[in-house]
Design goal:
The chain is an alpha/beta fold. It has six helices and eight strands.
Length: 207
């Protein structure tokens, strides 16, 4: 189990990471979710909780997913992007932490279980590494550059004509710092006004 944690262990990011690295899923809880550290976390489901039908494996239709390896203008090297959906889609969801959404949760197939799924394309952008994730997601200019200069040009080669702002959603983590994906989609808007409409920024609770 290791030494007990100090009361203020979650005060900074290294301490917060130590907590998560020592955590293990509850063996008596079948509900689990991949986390960005590459492990699994238990999910608390309340007595009135329910699983959305889209996440039930039996309700899914497996979807073909294209893998793109695009040059990364922020951290260098290449970054993997997974793309699924119809040509010339009516709406597109761009999800950061794509490793989790694609490899862990099979988001593309889950969308087939929703009424809007047939007309939606999903673009899942890999985090590459924890270090690259920390460098990119809190920085609006980095997010904007990655989307505008690398991800979206490559995605057009697979999906064709992308929808306008009213049909585009960008989803990612703020990492508890001001800005990040929320301001990154604004940076993208100013450089390429047709690229985004809505930014969704989930926030993780701290222990």
């Amino acid at each position: 189990m290791g030494e007990p944690f100090a009361d203020d262990v979650g005060r900074d990011r290294p301490g917060w990471l130590r907590v998560h690295e020592r955590g293990r899923p509850d063996p008596l809880n079948p509900h689990r979710l991949p986390n960005p550290l590459g492990h699994e976390s238990s999910v608390l489901v309340g007595p009135r909780g329910r699983v959305h039908p889209a996440w039930l494996r039996a309700a899914r239709t497996p979807q073909p997913v294209a893998r793109l390896d695009v040059p990364d203008p922020v951290v260098g090297g290449t970054r993997t992007v997974w793309v699924a959906g119809p040509r010339d889609p009516g709406q597109v969801l761009i999800a950061f932490d794509g490793d989790t959404w694609h490899q862990g949760l099979d988001l593309a197939s889950a969308l087939t279980g929703t009424p809007q799924g047939s007309g939606t394309a999903v673009v899942m952008v890999s985090s590459t590494s924890p270090e690259a994730r920390r460098r990119v997601l809190p920085d609006p200019e980095a997010v904007g550059s990655l989307l505008a200069d690398a991800v979206l040009p490559a995605v057009r080669g697979v999906l064709g004509v992308l929808p306008g702002p009213d049909g585009t959603v960008v989803s990612g983590q703020s990492l508890r710092r001001p800005g990040g994906c929320r301001r990154g989609r604004d940076a993208t808007r100013y450089r390429h006004p047709s690229h985004r409409a809505v930014g969704v920024v989930p926030v993780q609770a701290r222990a």
